[in-house]
Amino acid sequence: MKRRQFLAASLATSALALAHESGSAQAAPSSQREFYLMRRYELGSGPESKLTESYFSGALIPALGRMGLGPIGAFRLDYGQQTPAHYLLIPGASIQILAELELRLADDAEFMKSADPFWNATAASPAYRRVEASLMIAFKGWPKLKLPPSSGARSQRIFQLRTYQSPSNGEHVRKVEMFHSGEFEIFLKSGMTPVFFSDKLIGANLPNLTYMLCFTDLAELDEKWVAFRTNPEWKKLSANPRFAFDSIVTNIDNLVLSPLDCSQI
Questions:
Q1: Where are the domains of the chain?
Q2: From CA 257, how far away is CA 211, in angstroms rounded?
Q3: What's the CA gap between 183 and 249, in Å, rounded?
Q4: pLDDT digits (tens, 9 = 90+) for 139-177
Q5: Residue 29's pLDDT band (boundaries 50, 70, 90)?
Q6: Which in 94, 125, 164, 226 has the greatest CB count within 10 A?
């Protein structure tokens, strides 16, 4: 147990050091900025999806709530590469609590009982194929996740998850700067509903940033993006040579997700 605690503490320390050193953070992270643990569960066709969703709703999300974490996002991938897949978004006030998550869960007897079918699934009947995880820090200009009104009302909604990869740390810093130079406001003026904006500290395809938007449906998604692209303020900002798109963004991952019934977002 001491070894596992040491490893969790080491991960937290390393991630915090990255947050301090990364130019994309814009400044030393304050206590007001959230951290996000994003997990992607690669599933197979058949019972895996049901087993994983049951684990989220019956074991994991209630246990995270007992830890004081939330709101928790649980999503099904509708459009994007490598379906079927589920995504889980866990916000936390510190890296420490996210790094020690599995240790805390293992000490929760109620969780372990409820999670047994998932945690002890066999190779013959797996719960998932692979799990990928990323650790992110909220942007200074958008320090906390904002729950969309449609989430609280449990009404129809979809989510767009966008990840921008940059060719270097310096170019990545400029793309983050662009968000803080008026892009947040343009999203809002275009009628969009942002959920979070974040800088990835640990994960694949670094350096990159990830953000999430909420829409009623695909028709609204297309409508609001047209409003964004035609906004005069966006045209002015994107014409600034400092933010030339071809230089600061080399690839965009664009996913459309729908909330699972157990999702709190």
A1: 2-137, 141-259
A2: 13
A3: 15
A4: 999 999 999 998 877 889 999 999 999 999 999 999 999
A5: very low
A6: 164
Query: What's the mean pLDDT when you consider all of the chain?
Result: 89
Nearest to 64 by CA among 51, 77, 75, 55: 55
In angstroms, rounded to a whole number, what is the distance separating the alpha carbons of residues 5 and 151?
35
CA torsion angle 215 221 223 226 (round to 10): 120
Backbone angles phi, psi at 176, to 5 degrees: -65, -40
- Report the 10 Å Cβ neighbour count for 107: 11
What three-state secondary structure class fits 192?
coil
Rounded to an integer, what distance in angstroms lies between the CA atom of residue 71 and that of residue 165? 27
Q: Buried b / exposed e across 6-38, counting CB within 10 Å, b at 16+?
A: eebeebbeebbebbeebebbbeebeeebbbbbb
CATH placement of domain 141-259? 3.30.70.100
Fold of the domain built from segment(s) 2-137: Alpha-Beta Plaits (3.30.70)
> How far apart, in whole angstroms, are the C-alpha atoms of residue 221 and residue 213?
9
Task: Work out the average pLDDT over 49-54.
Answer: 91
